[in-house]
Amino acid sequence: MLVWERPEPPDRPVPAPLSRERIVRAAIRLADADGLEAVSLRKVAAELGVGPMRLYGYIATKEELLDLMVDAVHAEIRPAGDGWREVLRSLAETTRQAVHRHEWLADLIGGRPRLGPHALARGEAVLAAMADVDVDTVVPVVAAVDAYVIGAVRREITERRAERATGMDKKQWQAAFGPYLQRVFATGRFPALASVVRDGPHLDADQTFQTGLDFLLDGIEARISG
Question: 86 Cβ partners below 8 Å, 6+ apart?
């Protein structure tokens, strides 16, 4: 029986009462503070002031705990709006916001569909907004938006981690490597790349995300209208 269907143990009169919700919230606090490396059943038990064996009545494995953590964050992803375009934009933006609040989520999103109740509610909201679109179009459309968001937020989180690891933000990194690029471009071997670096727009993360999302939604709208 999957963790979503398996009943919790009955309440017991003990000094530290437990529930799956309390366990998951404690795990999320640890992950938000120090990443997924900080999450284990032993560390979560210590955070709650109980013995590790008590957790096994609620969660059988660390994989179940991670599934529950991801689903809990899906409660923060509530696509809304008038019409499918607004809902897809809301899906993309609220997913990105959730990953920014919970950086570890970037390592867990994607892959097989999430089957927890909050993830299913998120999917229901998106598909209901696209009820007037042919189902053969809906499935690849939602997959395309998810793929765009996952790729974008993983790149942003990778940039954050690189800043912490190197101690250099984006501008400092560009200043450090700028002279090298100038020498390379001076050889004339990469004229197209040199032109874009010198003359192209230099967008921040928000602008880059929104511009790419506009391109994607414009393409989807043209395909649906056609």
Answer: 80, 129
How many whole angstroms separate alpha carbon 156 and alpha carbon 100? Answer: 9
Give the list of residues 6+ apart from residue 89 with CB closer than 8 angstroms, or none: 81, 213, 217
SS3 for 78-135, per residue?
Answer: CCCCCCHHHHHHHHHHHHHHHHHHCHHHHHCCCCCCCCCHHHHHHHHHHHHHCCCCCH
Q: Cα-flanking dihedrals φ and ψ of residue 41, to 5°?
A: -60, -35
- The single-letter code of the amino acid at 189 is R
pLDDT of residue 2: 85
Q: State the alpha helices, DSSP H only, in 167-190.
A: 170-185
For residue 159, give the amino acid letter. Answer: E
Q: What is the dihedral of CA 196, 198, 200, 205, to 10 degrees?
A: 100
What's residue 14's pLDDT? Answer: 65
The full DSSP string for 51-63 is -HHHHTTT-SSHH
Crossing angle of helices 41-48 and 20-34, rounded to 10°? 110
- Alpha carbons 39 and 26: distance in angstroms, whole number: 9
d(CA 165, CA 159): 10
Those residues of the chain that have pLDDT short of 50 are none
Kindly report the pTM of this predicted structure: 0.89
What is the C-alpha separation between 140 and 98, in angstroms, rounded? 23
pLDDT at 3: 87
